[in-house]
Amino acid sequence: MNVKQQDKLATGILYTIAGIIILVLASLLAFILIQGLPHVTWHFLTAPARSFEAGGGIGIQLFNSFYLLVLAMLISVPLSLGAGIYLSEYAKKNWLTSLIRTSIEILSSLPSVVVGLFGFLIFVIQFKFGFSILSGALVLTVFNLPLLTRNVEESLASISSMQREAGLALGLSRWETVMRIIVPEALPGITTGMILGAGRVFGEAAALIYTAGQSAPALDFTNWNPFYIASPLNPMRPAETLAVHIWKINSEGIMPDAVAVSAGASAVLIVAVLLFNLGARWFGQHLYQKMTGTGKKGA
Amino acid sequence: MDPIRESLLKVSHQAKLERRGRIIGLFCISLIVIVVAAIFYFVASRGLATFYHDKINLWDFLTKQAWNPGTKDSHGNPAVGALPMIVGSFLVTIFAAIVATPFAIGAAIFMTEISPRRGMQILKPVTELLVGIPSVVYGFIGLTVVVPVIRQLFGGTGFGILAGTMVLFVMILPTVTSMSVDALQAVPRYYREASLALGATRWQTIYKVVLRSATPGLLTAVVFGMARAFGEALAVQMVIGNAALLPHNLVSPASTLTSILTMGIGNTIMGSLENNALWSLALILLLMSLVFNLLIRLIGRKGAMK
Amino acid sequence: MKDYDLTKTAIKTFDPEVQEIALSTDDLHVFYGSKEQIKGVSLQFPRYQISSIIGSSGSGKSTYLRSLNRMNDEIQIARVTGKIMYRGLDINQPKIDVFEMRKHIGMVFQRPNPFAKSIYDNITFAPIRHGVKDKKVLDQLVETTLQQAGLWKEVKDTLHKSALALSGGQQQRLCIARAIAMKPDILLLDEPASALDPISTSVVEDTLAQLKAHYTIIIVTHNMQQAARISDYTAFFHQGVALEYAETKRIFTKPAIQATDDYVSGHFG
Ligand SMILES: Nc1ncnc2c1ncn2[C@@H]1O[C@H](COP(=O)(O)OP(=O)(O)OP(=O)(O)O)[C@@H](O)[C@H]1O
Ligand SMILES: [Mg+2]
Description:
The structure holds three protein chains of three kinds.
Chain A: H1 3-36, H2 42-46, H3 59-90, H4 95-109, H5 112-126, H6 133-157, H7 161-169, H8 174-203, H9 242-252, H10 258-292
Helix pairs in contact in A: 1-10, 3-6, 3-8, 4-6, 5-6, 6-8, 7-8, 8-10, 9-10
Chain B: H1 3-9, H2 13-52, H3 58-63, E1 67-72, E2 78-80, H4 83-114, H5 116-131, H6 135-154, H7 161-185, H8 189-197, H9 202-231, H10 234-239, H11 257-264, H12 273-305
Helix pairs in contact in B: 2-12, 4-5, 4-7, 4-9, 4-11, 5-7, 6-7, 7-9, 8-9, 9-12, 11-12
Chain C: E1 10-11, E2 21-32, E3 35-46, E4 50-55, H1 61-68, E5 78-86, E6 89-90, H2 98-104, E7 105-108, H3 119-129, H4 135-148, H5 152-155, H6 168-180, E8 186-190, H7 198-211, E9 216-220, H8 224-230, E10 233-238, E11 241-247, H9 248-253, H10 258-264
Parallel strand pairs in C: 1-11, 4-9, 4-10, 7-8, 8-9
Antiparallel strand pairs in C: 2-3, 2-5, 5-6, 10-11
Helix pairs in contact in C: 3-4, 3-6, 4-6
The structure holds adenosine-5'-triphosphate (ATP) and magnesium ion.
């Protein structure tokens, strides 16, 4: 076989591989959406789950997922901003900084079960938060922090140092320069990273089964006092999320329409991920245009 | 008196802001470091209790095959042999990597070298989207599609290493692919141009020049995928069968460290041997994730030296 | 390149009784890591005068200028030793509040670096952060500084448009306006006209000539005609050393040092 034929063959194989991958991934998406979307009705999205009979919904789980997401982001966004700013603006090049970077790297690569078990040990047992939204939100924060921090740091680092000099030369502190000039300029990148992080948190299950728990007690959607036991906002109640729900009904195998419910729930999850993805792109671009004045409306 | 001169010797509002900002940043970053240290401390102290407190022999733990920490074997020793799970974890990880690597690198070559326009327009957004798909969804598809197909083809229950491998393969494929794309894109354009100008075919250029100089990056991508596969819990747990037995073939129910861990930890009492033994599995997971991390660093350093 | 004797220097000094000194350095050294880039420079800059710094590329002009308001503090590997005297204080020491100091010693950089904000916000940003709240005062400040920087006519109707939409020359004049909005005592400029077209350059030069009444100006420039046109005193830098410092006319007509002569007559290197 000469080199020309080899080249042809290799190209053919590469096309085949690309084709197979597209096929696998497309059928994956198609399977979920085709299997799942027909189940997604208003009733399905709002009704509570039923354990032993068919026809249950995912209303409470869906609410739990969002509430947990909001709480987790409320804690992790400011923390990651602070940490990212420190790394990009203040950290000197020395052993301490490289130790910090190493810890962040390690934390980001830990299996989420391990993070979940740690949360179980600390938040659920040690701090006596029990299986609760609070424990779940804290563990999701741990899970999310390293990636968000790195994203903040990278977004800040991509802003020219001339902008920092401009602020400093006007007698502003580094902190004000960063908070009011650099962070706003880096906002498109930071927001994109945060939204993608939110998507990751939304689908996370392994870290939650032993922290937020695997039960979804009935909620009283008429009472929003966070201290009331059945209030949707009560952070101390156990809260099975959508992703945990899919895992649980499939491993228990007692729900008669588990497959249908899982398919529906999976479709909802995927659509959510899709929205997070598109949202991240759109929002990042929109912000960028708004800030640089390159958009139609200008700044 | 000169007011400007005076003001230079005082602490300005901006200086106070600066100090406050630095403390806030330091607080956030310390929190992360403390959490990492705490994870190591707590998992290690629980995981080592099996050996220090319950006096289990480390070697037995790593090499014995019987896993049933609640009962004792014929010699009156508790059965805490973790070998089946260790083997299971390594098998699914290695198999998934073996299957995924050619696909991922092939797709990456396609996207960067063969058809960048189509590749970037179709393949890239799809892989990026798939990176974000929750692992339970992969587990669910494994359970409803992969397991029945394997059952049809090979008999048995369909649960096992093969099903786990398939699920993990699809799971890590997008990640490895997009990291491979980054690695290939990092190869300077003039390498390719120089090679093509010397009369090499496109494939020769890819094979001899591009792949070779991107090797560290591609290796990193694969190791990264393996780390994800090794630590994945729920998707694997849903399809592997969760029998703490040494797998005899690829289609008999088996288990991984993560699957036994997620199944068991809620059903055991804190501080009991059963519970400690599970924490020892978690400790292995933790250490393995360190090993993968170290590997990635070593590859990076080797790559930087070249 | 010719080797010039770096030990033979001709530096003008002033009698503080006759001429008030706004800023001076005394044996200033700057190191980047272990490399010494400024090797003991002692210069006095008289108040309400324009002093320019000339010299070939890499001679340390920017490095010297940046150390005057301690911008080199922000470069991790940089180390500055020696005295920087301002209002009877050595400002090159930790006990000096560096942020307060930079309010009084402002700086304009070689490349225009407006914030990604509106023109109006670019100018009012720092004054607001330093406590000016009154809207009327701010409006007035925007108008006067833009007028001083020769930009007012061009932008007075688009004050709330993004500054990034301005041309390079306009951006640089905005940066000058932004710097003088702080009403600094001393203004440091690092090749402010190097990115500008001839018309913008002459606008900026006129601006500087007018600002001289209220500000002490130290300007780094590559352009010898510019130095000759606008400055009262000129320093010539070579390889991190100030070889000569004198009245501008003197530097350009009968310099005391061979290197200066070669440089201003174009026979350098
Ligand atoms: N941040 C830095 N780190 C290390 N070395 C630097 C840094 N900035 C400048 N230098 C070095 O210091 C020397 C003087 O540089 P400087 O920028 O002061 O020269 P200059 O006279 O302003 O030149 P130009 O006319 O090109 O602006 C150069 O050799 C340069 O490489
Ligand atoms: Mg310079």
